[in-house]
Design a protein that fits this description.
three-stranded antiparallel β-sheet; transcription; chromatin regulator; transcription regulation
Length: 477
């Protein structure tokens, strides 16, 4: 019996290469060493836009690209006080405009981001599941096949797939790699939408087009380049890309995507149903019945008719659509988008300093047969702020206001339900004050609540949820 995710049933080790769903290849003898990454990346757009896009594509070689290695850059970013500014340091002015190739001529630039050795350690030490965290694929005779057996992916099987000519794709490296997690958590705050990643190990991978297009539909590429280790290729949404690992070359590359489902159209998908619901409640024009004979002159079968009733009908629909704008609950629709975003988000990755001054560094512990240092308390003079600009957000829902936050999210996409807490009326103004004060620290006593008890209860709630940190680590009394 075969699994839906399998091309073939996994056989015994000695004959597995043939029965994994691919034919064994005659391979050249070579050293088992990691070679510089060399992936042939091709970008395509419609023929109509090809000429314009070719002119707009940019290539920057090593000259003028004087930047520190990634690990040094990330270390420097932890020193930036405002988390929004951290993201701005990584932002390119080509965003959503044109492809750009950055050739750094520095093969060690991404050293520390992710490596084959780290991937191997993850396979050994973590619960990596086929189809959930890892895909094994091949491309033979113009057909892509997936060879995921059921269960956990262990080095014994995974590397045999690789040696047989398969490609390995880790679907969510941020769940296992703290460095990838850190990069994505910075990017998601800048883009205001989820940032995702996958890592691919390729040895012999022919061109694979998007599953939505065939080769004839793609057309000619507007950019055809060879990526070396340390290079970066950015292309906006709407561009099709293909990757081809050069012969006898090992390729490890990471793909990062963001800003998906974050267009005006996506906002309107939230806004229009709510607008129509309100309009039907408040405006009798939206509740009036359709003409009794509208089926006789409207619809596809009547679309070619020269009937004045059609023009009148369409004009009436246009009028209702224009009036619908006045009923649009724009802020409520944005809050819906925000709730979705906060659910999608990775939790913030805290620096050592941030951990020490948050609930994760509180000194409470078990020792000498009892709980120790549990008397740590926030005080009126304690300075507090959000751990991140985007870590929490107030969202309205009818008569209630809730605080949605990311600090208890999982690094695995949607593993947890959305995290929120309903706000007491006496806390709403203080929460807004705290959000808008970021990145400044403010004292608990300065929170605009009527009583000191209300100020302390809000601060303690936020501290326990990991939403705020203190200017200095708390100490036991």
């Amino acid at each position: 019996m075969t699994s839906p995710l399998q091309a073939k049933s996994p056989p015994a080790k000695k004959i597995k290469r043939k029965e994994n769903g691919i034919q064994p290849k005659n391979k050249l003898n070579k050293k088992k060493t990691v070679k510089p990454l060399k992936s042939n990346m091709r970008l395509s757009s419609s023929d109509k836009e090809k000429s314009k896009a070719e002119k707009e594509c940019e290539t920057h070689n090593g000259e003028g690209v004087d930047s520190p290695a990634l690990d040094a850059l990330l270390m420097d970013l932890t020193k930036v006080n405002n988390s929004r500014d951290r993201a701005n340091r990584l932002f390119q002015d080509n965003w959503e405009k044109k492809p750009i190739l950055i050739q750094r001529q520095n093969p060690d630039f991404y050293k520390g981001l992710f490596s084959t050795a780290e991937f191997d350690q993850i396979l050994r030490n973590d619960d990596v599941q086929y189809g959930v965290n890892l895909d094994v694929t091949s491309y033979t005779n113009g057909k892509r096949e997936t060879h995921n057996p059921p269960g956990r992916a262990l080095p014994y099987t995974v590397w045999d797939f690789y040696e047989s000519g398969c490609s390995l794709r880790m679907l969510n490296p941020q769940a296992f790699s703290s460095t990838v997690w850190q990069v994505l958590s910075i990017l998601q705050e800048k883009f205001g939408s989820m940032a995702g990643a996958n890592v691919s190990e390729d040895e012999v991978l022919p061109l694979v087009s998007s599953p939505n297009f065939n080769q004839n539909e793609i057309g000619q590429p507007i950019m055809d380049v060879v990526l070396e280790a340390g290079d970066l290729l950015y292309f906006p949404r709407g561009f099709i890309h293909q990757g081809d690992c050069l012969p006898n070359a090992h390729s490890l590359h990471i793909t990062i995507s963001s800003f998906q489902r974050n267009s005006w159209g996506d906002l309107l998908l939230k806004l229009m149903p709510a607008s129509l619901e309100i309009a039907m409640e408040e405006d009798v024009e939206f509740r009036k019945g359709l003409p009794l004979d509208y089926l006789q002159f409207m619809g596809v079968q009547n679309s070619e008719k020269d009937d004045p009733r059609r023009s009148k009908f369409i004009a009436h629909v246009e009028g209702l659509m224009k009036n619908l704008v006045s009923y649009a609950p724009v802020d409520a629709a944005v809050d819906q988008k925000a709730r979705d975003f906060l659910h999608d988000c990775l939790p913030p990755m805290l620096s050592a300093e941030e951990k020490a001054s948050s609930v994760y560094g509180a000194p409470a512990r078990w020792g000498d047969g009892k709980a120790l240092d549990v008397t740590v308390q926030l005080k009126g003079q304690t300075q507090i702020r959000l751990v991140r600009a985007g870590a929490a957000r107030l969202c309205g829902d009818g008569d209630t206001v809730s605080l949605f936050y990311t600090t208890e999210n999982s690094r695995v996409y949607h593993k947890e339900e959305p995290k929120s807490t309903e706000m007491k009326t006496e806390h709403i103004d203080a929460m807004e004050f705290l959000i808008h004060s970021y990145p400044k620290f403010v004292s608990v006593a300065s929170l605009p609540c009527e009583t000191m008890e209300a100020k302390m209860s809000l601060a303690e709630l936020l501290f326990e949820k990991g939403v705020i940190r203190t200017a200095e680590p708390l100490t036991a009394e």
